[in-house]
Give the backbone structure.
Amino acid sequence: MILWFSGTGNSEWCAHVVARELNDECFNTFKYIRNKEQHTFISEKPWVFVVPTYAWKMPRVFRDFLKRSTFEGCRDAYVIMTCGMDNGNAQKDNESVLGKLGLAYKGTLEVTLPENYIAMFNVPSSQVIDAQFISAHELLVAAAHKIAQGQTFNVKKAFAADLLKSGIVNAVFYPMYVHAKKFTTTDACIGCGVCASVCPLGAISMDANHPVWRDTCTHCMACISHCPAEAIEYDNKTQGKVRYTAQKCMPANFKVALTACSDVPAVNMELHKNVHVCEGTPIQIQPACEAELAAVNKLCIAEDMSPYTDVENTYVATDSTGEVLGFIRLRIAQDSRVFVNPIITAADARRQGVGRSLMHFASEVYGNLYLVARGSAIQFYRAIGFEEMAWDEVIPELTEDCGNCDRIKECSPKPMKLIAAKQA
Ligand SMILES: Cc1cc2nc3c(=O)[nH]c(=O)nc-3n(C[C@H](O)[C@H](O)[C@H](O)COP(=O)(O)O)c2cc1C
Ligand code: SF4
Ligand code: SF4
């Protein structure tokens, strides 16, 4: 099983390349990192952990995730670390961390890809980026071959400078540099909430349509690099600098669809002004903040649904007083398709276009949408452009929801999809 963490997509891309070569499962660890979840992973194939290098070691948030987790099945474990330059002597720490988990450490592969740390450095030129992806691809294919054969990765010769970088410099780097105090936004901010939704740590909340950073930030550069308006700056270090994401900058022949955490689909700036007119009444659609969780849950309970503990991938429609009229929650599948689950409008706000506006908004941000429609809602989805699809296109969690429900006959569920291009 390939487990990855990524701020701007390099490591996710490597994970997909290796997973494809090994015909193995590719797993995004964001949820477990963001919620500090303990989880038992089971795989009969070798474990491959793919991460960026942060200060010449694996990211601390990932190391903490590994320490919290249990790995059952195969004992062999490999680490792939992407870096802008080098990973110092990260191999030593990796061996120790994996050893403590009872895994057989089979080596660390260093893969140089574009530098993303724009709070300190610059993104390389497009020629350099192309060359980096070409050699990284060759390295990864060869590495996958070694993994399939059960071979170990070569041990890197570590010099005194490498020991220093992965030792004392790493220890000093975190307390000195890794905090969110220097993030600011400019007037270009359109309040779209993309920064909050891509932050793997949930370190950004939206307050009156403006991002507010908390100090759980790990400097992954996802927020600043994904902001569609380039409205985020870090101190005076990032002004005028190119923002890097793998999805945007990698050569076309290497493109794979990267998921929401490391890439948000192209954003229509006009629609992201966030004001939707609903039967003459202006409503606002924005990412839900913690304070709106209670209102979201009130709507869930009214529909006999269990309440949520977080507002992840949840967008609310509010009226001019801030009252929540409805919400949409999205589930990003491992193959990056976006499932609507659920969309709910308050009983006294129905038939005013709230649901339609929420759906339109989600489709503008995320592109194609998928869902399982039930009962009378099927007509509504047809009317706004959804078409039926096969059950095997639905992610198992949603199929199970229906399979375990005793009201299945009454609501005759139908899997449906909205193809954004057709809608436009
Ligand atoms: C906080 C931080 C620290 C970094 N430290 C290093 C480093 O020590 N050595 C290095 O070569 N690159 C370093 N980089 C660059 C990234 O490791 C590199 O661009 C990586 O491929 C980004 O992966 P991602 O796109 O999956 O997030 C650092 C980047 C960040 C954001
Ligand atoms: S992503 Fe950029 S434009 Fe959108 S809310 Fe965040 S800072 Fe503002
Ligand atoms: S606040 Fe920005 S830089 Fe910090 S962890 Fe979240 S996305 Fe990464």
